[in-house]
Design a protein that fits this description.
- This protein is mostly beta strands.
- It is 4% helix and 73% strand.
- The protein contains one helix and nine strands.
- A three-stranded parallel sheet has the order 1-4-7, with no helix packed on it. It has a three-stranded parallel sheet with strand order 2-5-8, with no helix packed on it. Strands 3-6-9 form a three-stranded parallel sheet, with no helix packed on it.
- The relative contact order is 0.27.
- The model has no long low-confidence stretch (mean pLDDT 82).
């Protein structure tokens, strides 16, 4: 009896944030831009290979990915915890134009491959991807502008691949004779 196993677990957490706090006042002679951008690649791969496993062979593999990424570009609508504003404090932006942009670009790959070779062979493979992402662009408070107000939240996932592959085979007659 031969046994071969592989397990991979990947946990990725990320936060990208650009913000103006509640109660902030901004006066600008030109345009104001608030940008948060994330580019992320996550890969979890396992391989289990058992060749010439004797009479009975079991090769198993599991790949599990737990991924979470938040990308936020915001003008806050609440004061930070514990902050006491000054009397007359206000949330105000005065500018020629305001642009608030949050972009999230990601590629995820999760794969598992199990291969067994024996007179009696079992190959097992499992791949799981638990992916969560939030992309948010927001603007709160008073805005005075002589131009455009642009809010853009964009989330693009290029590759989102989850694969499990297994194979089991008996050795050919010549290999069996060598094992005996």
């Amino acid at each position: 009896f031969s046994l071969n196993a592989a397990v991979a677990y990947g946990k990725f957490r990320g936060l990208t944030e650009a913000s103006l706090g509640h109660g902030s006042a901004v006066d600008a002679g030109g345009e104001i831009s608030l940008t948060a951008a994330t580019e992320f690649t996550g890969e979890v791969v396992t391989v289990s290979t058992l060749e010439q496993g004797g009479t009975f062979a079991l090769a198993g593999t599991v790949a599990y990915a737990d991924l979470a990424q938040d990308t936020l570009a915001v003008r806050g609508s609440e004061y930070a915890s514990g902050y006491t504003p000054l009397p007359g404090a206000q949330s105000r932006i005065a500018a020629d134009g305001v642009t608030v942009t949050a972009t999230h670009k990601a590629d995820y790959t999760v794969s598992a491959k199990g291969t067994a070779e024996s007179r009696v062979a079992v190959g097992l493979a499992g791949a799981v991807a638990d992916i969560e992402s939030d992309t948010h662009a927001g603007l709160a408070g008073e805005v005075e502008t002589g131009g455009d107000v642009v809010l853009l939240a964009d989330s693009v996932t290029g590759t989102k691949a989850v694969s499990a592959e297994t194979s089991a085979k008996a050795p050919d007659e010549e290999e069996q004779e060598e094992q005996e």
